[in-house]
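Anyone up for a design puzzle?
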């Protein structure tokens, strides 16, 4: 039987602690897992070696026998029952020791019993690994996230029916558990992370749950006051304009903003900024009236 240096396989020395062995195994098993290295033909063999090394060194009793008897560690009990008669020829070993066994077998009998065909023990003993997480980007318009709706996505060749809550924000990422890549050795599937890319083709500016919009106000209504109809995100409303309203005046419409994420019937506010428009194309009579107004203003 060919001697296999399990310490070397796990990139450790003989003084490694149990914690060191566990960490090394997890790191290397993840790195060389066949499902994660499908283009590397040597990954499967390396992964099997790592599993075998962990089965031995990760078990304190097996490790003790391996350290003492080397490649014949499996026969430790027979040696000990024989009163130690056969212990001396095998003795301890150094991790740097070399053997000239030219057996064509790549792995020990122990390894074959674990991973060989027919016994069914391979699947039961292999470490389970969670599948890789997947990331996807979903492009939506601002109008589409104003109300909760369903959307079917195709990710990694699979169709996923997704409920998109109203109020999701641009750049927000949500997690869909169990919809990532399949796990290895019956391990759990990874998760799917969806990041929303939301474009805005409306005249409203969104900041969190609040909306902002400019509204043109004609000069006469600004001066005298009156009633106007404006657009909100979900319809039209009437507003009363106070007399002598200045350009840049802001008005808050409570509850007319954007839906609050995952809070039923809760909305932000809409902030309106009036932009007073000076009349153009005045007739001579209109200009004369403005001159009269100007004179009256100066008298005050």
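Challenge accepted. My sequence:
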């Amino acid at each position: 039987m060919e001697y296999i240096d399990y310490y070397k396989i796990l990139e450790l020395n003989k003084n490694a602690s149990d914690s060191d062995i566990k960490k090394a195994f997890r790191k290397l098993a993840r790195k060389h897992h066949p499902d994660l290295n499908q283009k590397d033909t040597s990954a499967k063999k390396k992964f099997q070696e790592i599993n075998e090394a962990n089965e031995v060194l990760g078990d304190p009793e097996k490790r003790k026998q391996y350290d003492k008897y080397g490649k014949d560690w499996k026969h430790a009990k027979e040696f000990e029952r024989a009163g130690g008669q056969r212990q001396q020829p095998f003795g301890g070993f150094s991790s740097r020791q070399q053997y000239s066994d030219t057996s064509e077998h790549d792995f020990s009998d122990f390894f074959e019993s674990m991973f060989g065909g027919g016994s069914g023990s391979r699947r039961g003993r292999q470490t389970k690994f969670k599948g890789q997480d997947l990331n996807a980007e979903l492009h939506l318009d601002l109008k589409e996230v104003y109300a909760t709706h369903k959307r079917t996505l195709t990710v990694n060749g699979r169709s996923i029916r997704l409920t998109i809550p109203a109020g999701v924000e641009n750049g927000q990422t949500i997690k869909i558990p169990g919809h990532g890549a399949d796990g290895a050795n019956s391990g759990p599937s990874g998760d799917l992370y969806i990041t929303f890319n939301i474009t805005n083709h409306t005249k409203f500016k969104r900041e969190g749950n609040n909306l902002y919009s400019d509204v043109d106000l004609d000069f006469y209504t600004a001066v005298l006051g009156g009633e106007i109809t404006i657009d909100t995100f979900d319809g039209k409303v009437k507003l009363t304009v106070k007399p002598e309203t200045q350009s840049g005046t802001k008005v808050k419409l409570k509850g007319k903003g954007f839906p609050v994420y995952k809070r039923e019937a809760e909305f932000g506010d809409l902030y309106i900024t009036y932009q007073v428009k000076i009349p153009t194309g005045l007739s001579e009579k209109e200009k004369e009236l403005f001159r009269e107004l100007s004179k009256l203003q100066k008298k005050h």
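A detail worth pointing out: The chain has three domains: 6-125, 134-199, 205-283.
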